[in-house]
Design brief:
Blueprint (H helix, E strand, L loop, with lengths): L1 E3 L2 E7 L2 E15 L4 E7 L3 E6 L2 E5 L3 H13 L7 E6 L4 H8 L4 E6 L2 H10 L1 H4 L7 E5 L2 H7 L4 E7 L13 H9 L1 E10 L7 H12 L4 E8 L7 E8 L18 H6 L5 H6 L2
Length: about 270
């Protein structure tokens, strides 16, 4: 991350970065786990950065949160319960509430992410005030090891596979996830930019494939993430089948996206071979 002359820049490589013109820096703190920065930008509103990488902006957060929740919702059995690992901004929980989930557990390791989100993104983090959401401040890896609960959907809403999120891309963790899914349940994780983060996608896909019988990667366009092309990978013991019911449109998500997101460019297919 660099802030020069009122520009925040996320560096993708030694030779490329994406910059946002900034009105003001609203917050900068170092927690026990990571660095959190918050900016007020001209084009994307408030922008939350963790360890120098964009996590969400007011303008386009809906794309990520719809795609990690709404797309897997329509496969296999109709879900009612979910576990979110990460997701301290409340965006994933908000979308699940709109899908009428009855019970949501959200395990976030860094209390500061929740507090910052409550203050600066109240329209998103207000999901934590809903009685259907149980917020746990703690390590999601430890939670899943010590819990006996089973869930219809497990959503791994993590940062990149470094630091506190590194263990969320391991085969051991995916085994634990599998053991906490109901019959026909689905796990889904963000798996990075296929263009700039091949390792993240490869780790997620191959790790899940070593544990689950059925694994699929799908894509979305997210303007403020590296290259704009972002991947998600979902896994289940049951073959994936779209349920026969009306698809509710989001702001990004619709019936065409539900089907078309699985059509992958050739270079992405080669990453997950």
């Amino acid at each position: 991350m660099r802030l020069i002359e009122n520009w925040f820049s996320e560096r993708y490589s030694d030779n490329l970065q994406l910059s946002f013109r900034v009105k003001d820096q609203l917050l900068s703190i170092k927690t026990d786990y990571q660095r959190i920065d918050l900016f007020d930008t001209y084009d994307f509103g408030k922008l939350l950065s963790i360890d120098g990488t964009v996590q969400l902006t007011e303008r386009d957060e809906y794309i990520y949160h719809e795609m990690i929740t709404m797309l897997p919702y329509y496969f296999n059995t109709k879900p009612e319960t979910a576990l979110i690992i990460g997701g301290g901004d409340g965006g994933a929980a908000k979308r699940l509430l709109k899908l009428n989930f009855k019970n949501i557990v959200n395990a976030e390791i860094d209390r500061n992410v929740v507090e910052v989100s409550r203050k600066y993104f109240p329209e998103i983090a207000s999901s934590f005030d809903d009685k259907r959401v149980k917020l746990i401040i703690g390590d999601g890896i430890k939670y899943i090891k010590n819990s006996n609960e089973k869930f219809d959907r497990i959503i791994i809403d993590s940062t990149d596979p470094v630091g506190p999120a590194e263990g969320l891309f391991s085969k051991e963790f995916y085994n634990d996830i599998k053991n906490h899914l109901t019959d026909g349940g689905i796990a889904v994780t963000q798996s990075g930019s296929p263009y700039y983060q091949e390792k993240a996608l490869s780790l997620a896909y191959k790790g899940l494939s070593g544990v689950f019988s059925n694994v699929k990667t799908y894509l979305a366009f997210i303007p403020t993430y590296p290259s704009g092309l972002w991947s998600f990978t979902m896994a289940s013991e049951r073959a994936f089948k779209i349920r026969d019911e009306n698809v509710i449109n989001g702001t990004y998500f619709n019936k065409d996206i539900l089907a078309g997101s699985f059509y992958l460019p050739e270079f992405v297919k080669k990453i997950i071979i």
